[in-house]
Specification:
single chain; 71 residues; mainly beta; three-stranded antiparallel β-sheet; 6 strands
Amino acid sequence: LTVPAGHTTALSILQGQLRLDDGKIAKEAELAVFEREGTDLIVQAEPETTFLVLNGEPIEEPLAGSPKFHA
């Protein structure tokens, strides 16, 4: 996968598993978050694997929480 340099990239594994470029395995229901360096992500998907690529420019804003938020 080729992604823009400096962007935040994450892979959400919906089904199956992926072998990441560092040799680690990301399994179903896990989120693999990558460093912002470089533009090429190398992953190997097992058969029947489904994953979602999340990528975007960082907003560089502080995170703010609210005690009134309920999940």
